[in-house]
Design a protein that fits this description.
The complex is a heterodimer. Chain A has a domain at about 100-255: MetI-like fold (Orthogonal Bundle). In chain A, helix 4 packs across helix 7 (about 170-200), helix 4 packs parallel to helix 12 and helix 5 crosses helix 7. Chain A is mainly α. Chain A has helices at about 1-30, 45-50, 60-75, 85-120, 125-140, 145-160, 170-200, 205-210, 215-245, 250-255, 260-270, 275-300. By secondary structure, chain B is an alpha+beta fold. Chain B is about 30% helix and about 20% strand. Chain B is built from 17 helices and 20 strands. Residues about 1-25 of chain B have low confidence and may be disordered. At the A-B interface, helix 2, helix 4, helix 6, helix 10 and helix 11 of A face helix 8, helix 14 and strand 17 of B. Chain B: Pfam families: SBP_bac_5 (PF00496). Chain B: It is found in: Periplasm. Chain B: Belongs to the bacterial solute-binding protein 5 family.
């Protein structure tokens, strides 16, 4: 197992390198640059800016010095647009915000989603099943960009219970709406996957055996059915977790949380090369890491899987 | 008009005479008005603030913050007239080329040190210095400061810049051509003083709240990128006694509708009204919904240069395109926020500007459409043999609606517009490389005078993306720089634009906002919409 993990980590390095180089080239291939503005800059001013940010160098040299900055100093460079900030500062401000509301949303999505899915499967074709399926379909068809304005309308404008946005260091009043908006569609997917996987497991031989032994239903589900039923859910959770903690531009836009999701989209639109690279690398690393975690969890849950 | 009088009074100061600006303007609370206990003001920002460095900032929103954290030589009052800032007044030399500013001696930085002429000298040199690589370095050229072009180009040392501290409270500025509107340009954020010792100590981090030293009426206490900016009243500000608002908050809300919802929930004192919602809000909240002229113009630029389509080289085709656009439908049915239909380039409310007598502005739309049809037919374009043109616009619901309307106006006349929606940077890049036929464009004035618009269409402007070159136009704009009264030349320049029609004017902007009814002191007649937290106050309701 340890050898497997080390091997996977070793492969991660070239993977990241390819990701960095590919994004770097793609970004520079996009029309316009960080200093393209409605008021075209005089050539001399543009030349001064390019010199300051190293954009006058050949591409290969830019890549090399960028990589060197990361390896030698863990320095992702200055933002080209938010000029009094470095990429490290932008990520240091935005990422804790995102990881906070992302993790809570993840927990909510998993707990509620699994509970709904299991209930629906165990009580298949009863009113409980219909309600659970109804909730999950409802949550699925309400994308967060519809959900967010509705939440603000109801809880802020009509009821006046919650602030309409902001972060304030992550106080609970400011967390509720972002978490609901972000978690619902994930919750719905988890519920659906859990339900179908649970139904499949419940008809399998070992469950029949367990039932035949006279075990109470609660025990059958908790001890024998839940673990195998979780396998497809877990493979979904890895990428879902990364998606949630690397931020949602919708949540950031509607709730002004100041998270990393908005910074990422803005950096692409602004051609803020450095911020875009920084966030891409962050997301790439997390994706690789959590895919590994999922694979390790697999082996732990399913004795048939051995690396 | 009030703005006009105030500006020309300053602009036409006789040589050698001290230009006195009216007594300081601050929160002038009328007698008998009782103030609210809560003296805070919360305003809205569409986007994260890109920089709080006066010489680096390029955004209007950034300037709103800068004007509260720093103070330049002059400020504007609610009508747009100049009032003393750090400078009390100035003298102008006989030849109109040397300004000597007399600075107040009670101006202080937020750490208590006095503001000196050297702080301005350092800031202005820093703006021009190639090492700073400021996107607004060209503003020094626009101000005609001596040697600015050579310094920006790296061909002369920074110390050659025509700005000098004669003593701690006297600043001398040399410019290369007389500029009647020079004092007006000093309101711009890029001319605000900064502290050399602070910048040298903290480098790019000097604008962090814990490091920033400003000379404005407020100090920065918190800046969370994309979330909020918090500012407290500064006790060291020279006019702190008359400053009423004790705390300013700027909230970033990236969605206009969301901003409005949060305003209605009482979280903000001022917010932009999304297009089309003004009539409803004006009815529901008559004391809060406002629409004020705002110095920006919206046009479709035509590519009349070499890379442009043949058809657009024909002035009659260009005129036909312009005549065919029904501006009234665009402002009354699409935007609905008190914007003005435009038949010229310079914003109608610009100080001192006299609108030329543009023929087609006075016609009815039926007459315009008939004339357009006639001109297009003469050029050989009919619905059966239509002219094919592409119109580029950057992603925005409003631009899209206007573009669709334009294509509908033109279609029956034999012009098929292909609408190309593109991402902002792509749109801009294609415009600047002349890779377009028609393109949406907007320009906002840097200062309250017509040349900020009209200079754009000179052959040497650098923003003239449609490559409209006209010798008479160039000559007018050059002569206007030294003219005692440039206004007739501006009017004549507009007339050339109307005759040659290198752009299709669409509308002149308005600032359409919800403003809390207890907030007073915001600009009313200032087309630049420049505001200062120190001038505001909240009345008890």
């Amino acid at each position: 197992m340890l050898v497997y993990i080390l091997k996977r980590l070793a492969i991660a390095v070239p993977t990241l390198l390819i990701l960095i180089i590919a994004s770097f080239l793609l970004m520079h291939a996009a029309p316009g640059g960080p200093f393209t503005a409605e008021r075209e800059l005089p050539p001399q001013v543009l030349a001064n800016l390019n010199a300051k940010y190293g954009l006058d160098q050949p591409l290969w040299r830019q890549i090399v010095s960028y990589l060197w900055g990361i390896i030698a100093h863990f320095d992702f460079g200055p933002s080209f647009i938010y000029k009094d900030r470095t990429v490290n500062q932008i990520i240091a401000q935005g990422f804790p915000v995102t990881i906070t509301y992302g993790s809570i949303s993840f927990l909510v999505a998993v707990v509620v989603g699994v509970a709904l899915g299991v209930t629906a499967a165990v009580k298949q074709n009863t009113w409980l099943d219909y309600i659970a399926v109804g909730i999950s379909i409802g949550a699925q068809v309400l994308p967060n960009f519809v959900m967010a304005p509705i939440l603000v309308l109801v809880f802020t404008l009509w009821l006046g219970w919650l602030p309409g946005g902001g972060w304030q260091g992550g106080q609970w009043q400011y967390l509720i709406m972002p978490v609901i908006a972000l978690s619902t569609s994930f919750m719905a997917s988890i519920a659906r996957i859990t339900r179908s996987s649970m139904l499949e497991v419940l008809t399998s031989n070992h469950i029949r055996t367990a039932k035949a032994k006279g075990l109470p239903m609660r025990r059958v589900i908790a001890r024998h059915a839940l673990k195998p039923a979780m396998l497809p859910v877990i493979s979904y959770l890895g990428p879902a977790f990364v998606t949630m903690i690397t931020g949602s531009v919708i949540v950031d836009i509607y709730f002004s949380t100041g998270g990393i999701g908005k910074a990422f989209v803005d950096s692409a639109l602004n051609r803020d090369y450095a911020v875009m690279m920084g966030v891409t690398i962050l997301m790439g690393t997390l994706t690789i890491l959590f895919n590994l975690v999922v694979d390790v969890l697999y082996a732990w849950i399913d004795p048939k899987i051995r690396y | 008009m009030k703005i006009q009088r105030a500006v020309s009074a300053l602009a036409l100061v006789a040589a050698g005479v001290v230009a006195s600006v009216p007594a300081a303007y601050a929160a002038d609370v009328p007698e008998g008005v009782s103030l609210s206990e809560n003296q805070t003001y919360t305003f809205w920002l569409l986007d994260a603030i890109k920089s709080m460095d006066p010489q680096i900032n390029t955004d209007v929103e950034g300037s709103d913050i800068l004007r509260n954290l720093f103070e330049g030589l002059y400020n504007e009052d609610a009508t747009g007239a100049l009032v003393p800032g750090v400078a009390l007044d100035h003298t102008l030399s006989e030849d109109g080329l040397t300004y000597t500013f007399n600075l107040r001696d009670d101006a202080k930085w937020s750490d208590g040190k006095p503001v000196t002429a050297n702080d301005f000298v350092y800031a202005w040199k820093r703006l021009a210095d190639p090492a700073t690589a400021s996107e607004y370095a060209w503003y020094m050229e626009l101000m005609q400061i001596e040697n600015a072009p050579a310094i920006i180009a790296g061909e002369a040392p920074v110390d050659d810049l025509g700005v000098k501290a004669l003593d701690d409270h006297t600043l001398e500025v040399k410019i290369t051509t007389p500029l009647p509107y020079f004092p007006q340009m000093l309101v711009h954020g890029s001319t605000f003083p900064v502290r050399q010792d602070v910048i040298e100590e903290f480098g790019d981090n000097w604008t962090q709240p814990e490091n920033l030293i400003g000379n404005g009426a407020y100090t920065l206490t918190e800046h969370l990128l994309g979330e909020r900016v918090e500012m407290d009243k500064s006790d060291t500000y020279w006019d702190a006694d008359k400053t009423v608002i004790t705390h300013l908050t700027a909230l970033t809300i990236n969605d206009v509708n969301q901003g409005l919802t949060r305003y209605l929930a009482g979280e903000l004192d001022r917010v932009n009204i999304p297009a089309g919602q003004y009539p409803r809000l004006a009815e529901e909240y008559p004391d809060e919904a406002t629409s004020l002229p705002y110095s920006c113009s919206y046009i479709y630029m035509l590519n009349v240069g070499e890379k442009g389509p043949e058809a657009l080289k024909d002035v009659n085709v260009r005129k036909a395109l312009s005549y065919a656009i029904n501006r009234d439908i665009i402002v009354d049915n699409i935007l609905q926020g008190g914007q003005h239909a435009a038949y010229n380039w310079t914003h109608w409310a610009t100080a001192g500007f006299t609108m030329p007598d543009i023929d087609y502005a006075g016609w009815t739309q039926e007459e315009r459409t008939a004339k357009a049809k006639e001109l297009l037919e003469a050029a050989g374009y009919t619905p059966e043999t239509p002219l094919e043109l592409e119109l580029n616009y950057n992603t925005s619901e409003d631009h899209k609606k206007i573009a669709i309307a334009a294509s509908q106006f033109l279609k029956p006349l034999g012009v098929n517009l292909t609408l190309n929606n593109m991402e902002w940077k792509v749109h801009t890049d294609r415009m600047q490389s002349q890779d377009f036929e028609m393109a949406r464009y907007a320009w906002c004035g840097d200062y309250n005078e017509a040349s900020t618009y009209l200079d754009l269409f000179t052959s040497y402007s650098g923003h003239n993306n449609g490559e409209f070159f006209n010798d008479d136009y160039d000559k007018l704009m050059k002569d206007s720089k030294t003219a005692e009264d440039p206004q007739p030349m501006y009017t004549a320049a507009e007339q050339i634009l109307a005759d040659e029609m290198p752009v299709l004017p669409i509308y002149h902007y308005a600032k359409v906002d919800m403003i809390a009814s207890d907030i007073k002191g915001l600009p009313t007649d200032n087309v630049m919409q420049t505001w200062y937290g120190k001038d505001l106050y909240r009345v008890a309701e």
